[in-house]
Amino acid sequence: MSSCDRRTRAYKNGKTFDQCKEIAEKKNTEFQQVISANGKILWTEILESVDHDELVYKLTLKYLRRDGFDIGNHKIPEVKPFT
């Protein structure tokens, strides 16, 4: 039985998983600046900024949570710093 090789699987626009992770890390720093300036950022703004790439979107939310932000939930779809 063969296993999936994450280095060769193509996601949106032919990017690999590792390339998506790099994009998400770069976007993460941009979003942190927006959050510090405005106090929050909406999930829809993040989704539009990553060009509706679902994998990059999910990784970005994961990295924001890792860095100490409250990523909200389906009732409060926004990312803000923990208070």
What does this structure look like?
There is one protein chain. Helices cover 51% and strands 10% of the residues. With 83 residues, the chain is mostly helical. Strands 1-3-2 form a three-stranded antiparallel beta sheet. The protein is elongated and about 40 Å long. The N and C termini lie far apart (49 Å).
Shape: elongated
> What is the strand content?
5-15%
Strand order of the largest sheet: 1-3-2
Biggest β-sheet strands, sense, barrel: 3 strands, antiparallel
Task: Quickly give the structural class.
Answer: mainly alpha
Number of helices: 3
Unreliable spans are none
Radius of gyration (CA) equals 14 Å
What's the overall average pLDDT, rounded?
89
Characteristic key phrases:
83 residues, mainly alpha, 3-stranded antiparallel sheet, elongated
Task: Furnish the topology, listing elements before pairings.
Layout: H1 17-38, E1 41-42, H2 43-49, H3 54-66, E2 69-70, E3 78-81
Antiparallel strand pairs: 1-3, 2-3
Helix pairs in contact: 1-3
Gist?
The protein is mainly α and 83 residues long.
